[in-house]
Amino acid sequence: MALWRYALRRLLLLVPVLFGITLVAFALTHIVPRNPVYALVGTFADQRLVDETIKRYGLDQPLPVQYLRYMGNLLQGDLGTSIRSGRPVIDELRLRIPATLEMTSLALLLAVGVALLLGTLAALNVNQLPDYVARLAALVGNSLPEFWLGLIFVFVFYYQLGWAPPPIGRIASGVTPPPTVTNLYLVDALLAADWGALRSAAAQLALPVITLAFIVMAPIMRTVRANVLEVLNAPYVRCARAHGLQPRRILVSYVLRNALLSVVTLVAIIYGYLLGGAVLIEKVFSWPGLGLWAADAILTQDYPVVQSFVLLTAAFYVVVYLAADLVLALIDPRIRY
Amino acid sequence: MSRKIFVLLALFTLVLAACAAPAAPAAPAAATSAPGAAQTANTPANTIVAAVPNEPTTWDYDFVQGDLVGLSLVKNVDPFLLDHPVIDSGEGYLTLDTTQLVGVYADSYTVSEDGLTWTITLKEGMTFPNGEPITAETFRAAKERGMNFQANIGFVYGTIGISNIDHLTVVDDLTLEIKHDSFSSLQPYMHAIGSFFFDPKTWEENGSTDDPWATDWKSKNPGSGGPYSVAEVVAGQRILLEANPNWPGEVMNERVEVQIVPSASNRVLMLQRGDVDIAFGLGRRDVLALEGTEGVKVLSIPSTDAVMLVMNHSTPPFDNPDFRKAIAYAIPYEDILSGVYGGNATAMKSVMPNGMPGYTDAHWVYDTDTAKAQEALAASGIENPTIDLTIEAGVAEHEQIALLVQNALSEIGITVNIQELDSTTIAEQRAQRALPFLVHQGISWINDPEYHFNLSLAAEGFLNFGDYNNPRITEIIQESSQIVDAAERFAAYDEAQQIAMEDLPFIPLAQPNFVVAMRDNVQGYTYAADQLYRFWTMSKE
């Protein structure tokens, strides 16, 4: 099948997938026998206010009616209103998606770069110092809880050494965020040539990105190492060496290109996970991202937010996996869809 | 088209689509600092920097509930007619004199002899920051909005006999008359709480057919006319407040920067480093651990915040008076005060908190006594009972109390199973009076026995989670509400306390001090029962 037709088919399949996700998300959020309005009216509200609030949000309607109303609004682009804040969910998403994407994308880029380097070095120097260092780094990254690592980094680099700025979110106190184009602060600061905001945004990003990168680097590095080791012993690599090809060319064109296939898939899985999985890092660094927002919504039974978050995550996974498949097709000419 | 070019184009398109999301809503006002200004290590002398755990859930004073940050921020940015005067406690903090009421945007008020009519006269020439005049009609219109929803103001006004907007009459531009269905000694308190207002242009300009009162717009946009105006909001990160030059009172600083820092440990670190001046929402242990830290001071203020063991009188075995007394005699009160609260708490020996006018410990008989506890349990006729004790998840002190109670009751033969519920579930079940035995903590915003008994001990009181009902208590509440003389009214609650200590609707455990940590150069922190952050009284040496 031509690649473009494959990509289109995958994108069209997003519709039934998301429809199924809305059913599952709606059912799961409404199954829990808990009244979400207490998060809005307070835990000491009188029953009359509780009843009026339930009515205002349509929570007194039968579940099928609530679902149909939700789907009707969704088809018009209305993701509903947060029960807790009273704000449209779509407004919140516009603020939070870029915050999370910026941090997680940079962390993943850093993690992939370091993992490729360390994993390859480790494989090329099996059972020697670079290999031990890389394996130790992977062990530490796999073992340490990310929130603990984040807190330690804050304590050491901010509190003790004063190298890092206070963990107060995306931009420092007294610095105005750059004019909004994408709401990715680094991109917007570059577009506006706002060097102060660029420096501040980069400084604020440093510690959460490094923390997250340290954690996600570990499984990627181990996969790179294992794959490179396997490919190094492949007959075509031995053949290339025998033909006298330069070691660098063998490494890049033969070894890495073949070793990266499963790494691409792993990176796609991690990227999808990070969208909502960075909640603890967001809490430690006061990052106004999706994960923290969704976690609060789950705790307070804020249905519209939870449903929107699940929908968004599903759509993101589909798009990321599609991108991964396209990259694989780019790397491996044998792949046909 | 070559495969490579197509793939690269497709990837580029996906990335562009992600970046080209519609722009986020703009912040409500321009920032006051120039772009690129660097952060200083210490906070500016004229700015109070406060770290709070969450951003406000809403800016709408009519609907904000259960969110201390939100409640505090609207208190600082929305105007109000009346307030209690701030006085020096002499203990290193300010407090409110709740026996008095002073005008803020009001010039004066008078009360008719029968106590049924309040006449409030506004100050002349007052305006919102946008130049709109503040008149009696402004206030009436603002209350009409709140009473339309029976939101916060509906409850506040309802307790003092103001059931609908027709009770408010505009006499002239500066004069407002408020009529009450009946006299209530709570009028001054409720008028202080309920005298906030907004500019009616808010819903005239931002309402719609579906939302005529602009509830959607108001939830996202702060008010104006209070001690501060909101100069900048960086969503999820910080809120910058600038002192309102037209505020008819005194603001002791030029600006307040509210930093949203969800992690409590980070708030502690930032306070220690001097990057914030005051840190709110810290756990008790975190605050007390800061005592003695260089550059930091801790205020530990006796409060009427009450921790109690509520027992549901409709649910066996708690419907048995001797069983309730057995539990009361078994509780290790001193261990709770010293072990859980480290001595930073006051003993509570009545159903009213210590410090509330009319409080007496004369009827307290339940000092810890295992022998009496066993005697009472034997008299109850209940053998080897097993009971569930509910606590709110995430409250460390309640968990410690539950463990002490479990241990103490096991010594007299009562098995206790501890169950933790999240705050939303506990609120729902508590309101349904479905929890037989729970640790509950709460503070009355109004330090008055009538308010406290009405909410917590009257049969229909919505904080009466123990389903307690004693007709004589209800009579005392009704009789005392008509007593004008305060001393006489407070004395009437002596009998009510005596009855309640015999009935035991709940077992009072302790009144933890309110604790807050700040830099040692911060002055003028105002403590009130509502625990709201009153930034306008704070300054730095």
Write up this protein.
The complex is a heterodimer of chains A (337) and B (541). Chain A is an all-alpha fold. Chain A is built from 15 helices and no strands. The radius of gyration of chain A is 24 Å and the shape is globular. The model of chain A has no long low-confidence stretch (mean pLDDT 87). Chain B has 541 residues and is an alpha+beta fold. The longest helix of chain B has 18 residues.
TL;DR?
Chain A is mainly α and 337 residues long. Chain A is 74% helix and 0% strand. Helix content of chain B is 32%, strand content 21%.
The helix/strand order of chain A is HHHHHHHHHHHHHHH
Which pair of chains forms the biggest interface, and how many residues does each contribute? A-B, 83 and 76 residues
- Poorly predicted runs of chain B are 19-41
Poorly predicted runs of chain A are: none
- Overall structural class of chain B, as computed from helix and strand content, comes to alpha+beta
Our estimate of the beta-strand percent of chain B is 15-25%
Q: What shape does the CA trace of chain B take?
A: globular
Number of helices of chain B: 17
Largest sheet descriptor of chain A: none
Q: How many helices of chain A does DSSP assign? A: 15
- The counted number of beta strands of chain B is 24
What assembly state would you assign to the polypeptide chains in this entry?
Answer: heterodimer
Radius of gyration of chain B: 26 Å
The residue-averaged pLDDT of chain B reads 89
